[in-house]
Amino acid sequence: SYTATSLSFSSAVDFTGLGIEVNNTTYSYYSMLNGDSFAKKFGDDSATEGVVETDQADWFLLTVEGNLSGGSTGSVDFYLADYRYADSSQDYIVNAWEYIDLSSLGLVDALSFSLSSSDNGSFGMNTPNYFAIDNIGVVPEPSAYAMIAGLLALGLVFSRRRKLP
């Protein structure tokens, strides 16, 4: 596991109903997709150091832990890549912004981020230990709420325009 960073707030923030958006960096994404001089290609069934690895073992995990006054308020796991499925059509490497609901963390004054991977060597994790974060404290899928509100408003307009017989 690799502790990437901690994010502290000047005062406690209630994450109930809030979250963050994350994505793989270009470096991490292409390393898992194609392999490189350190990391294996995810989903590659070829032999590595005499051991046959299967695509069922490949994963890249981000863990977000909430902290309040130095104590943990809980954690949320999010797979940035997951090749553990029996049906390989479900395997994926995240390549677009994804929302993580952090409601379960509640009131926090810091968030800690750690990365772990199934691809490890004698010197630690081989998968590049990078990820991207944006929109800290965002409400889930605001565009979906805007679309629903817009459709409701449109429905009200059309219902008022109808003439009664």
Task: Give the CA-based shape.
Answer: elongated
The count of β-strands is 12
Largest sheet geometry: 5 strands, antiparallel
Chain-averaged pLDDT: 82
Q: Which value, in Å, is the CA radius of gyration?
A: 21 Å
Q: How much of the polypeptide forms β-strand, as a percent range?
A: 35-45%
SSE string, helices as H and strands as E: EEHEEEEEEEEEEH
**Ends apart, CA distance between termini:** 70 Å
**Counting H and I runs of at least 4 residues, what is the number of helices?**
2
Strands of the largest sheet, in order across it?
A: 1-9-5-6-7
Q: Percentage of helical residues?
A: 10-25%
Secondary structure class reads: alpha+beta
Low-confidence stretches: 47-55, 151-165
